User: Which sequence fits this backbone?
């Protein structure tokens, strides 16, 4: 990750590398970015309930570019057919009874998860709790979202009762909750669109944010508290005034080969979209990488593991 002012390490990404072949994430002319490890976002977000479900869908187009130096056209076709057959044989297995990401989704054949320390953000994401296999996504108001062959699992985390927990909000809350669980309170801070720094350190001291037009300030009107209830109130304030547009500005591009768990693909706009990498596996012989993505969406809804719509045998990797 790259240090962003006083914030954490954040990175952007463009094409998804697949062992010198490239795949791309298309989200209506996206700016494809990644956030590694630590990260914070800032921006006044459009709070309209406008639904982007049919307009904005993260789709991966896996485009294989094969090189065959010194070979004729016929040989190139044979190589291409061989590679396609090899890729189609990679089968991912779901363990329905698994209740976290690492126990529900086994790496595809030939791929292995790289070990990480149990205190890292990577381990936090890999250990996200999942609802029972086959569960449908719920909206903030309790209504059920039809699957539409988009998700493979639902993350078992509350999203509140307000229409605030959208895509960038889910990414920010995951990072913030990681720090909150590890009592790294001073690491939790996000900027609003106008540049106001909404840091949790002030919030837990009993200060609250007052917004008047484009003017934002702190006032002291509560008792100091770091309770989960007050922490969620802080997050909902951030959700109200931060989003993809501000988050995009805080990120820095990195080489695809450096992709790590915790990186984010984002299109900053009003509305935009963002998905975060929550797991990654590597083929130790070829260094090919496969990964899992999660998202929330509009209206506010539970976080979900996305399917790979272009490869049912590999999906959700």
Assistant:
């Amino acid at each position: 990750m790259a240090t962003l002012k006083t914030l954490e390490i954040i990175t952007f990404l463009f094409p998804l590398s697949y062992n010198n072949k490239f795949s791309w994430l298309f989200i209506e002319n996206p700016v494809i970015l990644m956030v590694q490890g630590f990260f914070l976002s800032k921006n006044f977000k459009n709070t309209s309930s406008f639904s982007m479900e049919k307009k904005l869908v993260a789709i991966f187009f896996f485009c294989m570019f094969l090189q065959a130096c010194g070979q004729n056209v016929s040989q190139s076709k044979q190589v291409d057919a061989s590679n396609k057959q090899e890729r189609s044989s990679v089968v991912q297995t779901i363990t329905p009874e698994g209740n976290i990401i690492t126990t529900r989704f086994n790496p595809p054949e030939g791929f292995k998860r790289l070990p990480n320390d149990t205190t890292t953000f990577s381990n936090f994401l890999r250990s996200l709790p999942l609802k029972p296999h086959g569960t449908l996504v719920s909206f903030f108001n309790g209504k059920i979202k039809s699957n539409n062959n988009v998700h493979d699992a639902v993350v078992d985390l509350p999203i509140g009762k307000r229409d605030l927990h959208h895509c960038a909000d889910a990414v920010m809350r995951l990072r913030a909750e990681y720090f909150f669980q590890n009592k790294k309170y001073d690491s939790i801070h996000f900027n609003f669109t106008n540049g106001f720094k909404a840091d949790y350190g002030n919030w837990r001291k009993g200060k609250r944010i007052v917004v008047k037009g484009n003017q934002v300030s702190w006032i002291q009107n509560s008792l100091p508290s770091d309770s989960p209830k007050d922490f969620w109130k802080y997050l909902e304030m951030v959700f109200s005034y931060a989003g993809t547009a501000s988050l995009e500005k805080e990120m820095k591009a990195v080489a695809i080969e450096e992709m790590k768990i915790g990186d984010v693909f984002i299109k900053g706009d009003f509305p935009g979209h963002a998905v975060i990498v929550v797991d990654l596996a590597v083929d130790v012989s070829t260094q090919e990488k496969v990964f899992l993505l999660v998202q929330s969406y509009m209206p506010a809804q539970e976080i979900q593991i996305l399917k790979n719509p272009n490869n049912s045998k590999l999906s959700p990797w």
Notes: The chain has one domain: 2-306.
